[in-house]
Amino acid sequence: MTEPLTLLPISVSDPGLADRCSAISAAPDSTPFGAGDARLELGGGTPRFYVMELQYRSVDAVTHITHHKQVTQCLASADGRPFWIALASPLEDSPAIAAERVQLVRVNPGEAIALHRNTWHAGPYFLEPKARFFNLELSDTNINDHHTRPLDRPMKLELC
Q1: Quick check: pTM over 0.85?
Q2: Each residue of 109-143: pLDDT tens digit?
């Protein structure tokens, strides 16, 4: 068995993530829309905003990664806790996505993440037995636009 590749987190606001996501952070009310705002693509169907509840999943051997071809996706903790998500460039298109090209991203309380269309992702991951997330996507994203591929080797995620 191949030894897992260990990933350490970077901040959601790291400029090196610009091809994969936008960081969403607090701004004063009435701040005009600008270059730092997330660009959402929700025109391919009915937008769905909901609170998603997930159970803890092991981070010791992540083996698959998913992307959505038709929509951006926004996630934030509904519990006010940090969470982590593994991301790879939307340009990756091999039968098995290279684990070495995946970055682990930490999203702190009070922040959100907007995944660009086609961004490969695994997660969100968290430390608690369960967690809730605000999720904005299309109503049928997980039915008609959920494309998963294996990683070329397992990943171990360091949630720190």
Answers
A1: yes
A2: 999 999 999 999 999 999 999 999 999 999 999 99
The first and second tokens of residue 158, run together, are 């360091």
How does pLDDT run across 16-44, given as a tens digit for each residue? 999 999 999 999 999 999 888 899 999 98
- The distance from CA 141 to its chain's CA centroid, rounded to whole angstroms, is 14
pLDDT tens digit sequence for 73-95: 999 999 999 999 999 999 998 99
CA 66, CA 121: separation in Å to the nearest integer? 5
Measure CA 150 to chain center. 16
In a domain, 30, yes or no: no
**CATH code of the domain containing 78:** 2.60.120.480
Quote the tokens at residue 141. Answer: 């994203």
- The answer to whether position 32 is within a domain reads no
SS (H, E, C) 78-138: CCCCCEEEEEECCCCCCCCECHHHCEEEEECCCCEEEECCCCEEEEEECCCCEEEEEEEEE
Q: Which domain holds residue 143?
A: 5-24+40-157
Flag whether 139 is in a domain.
yes
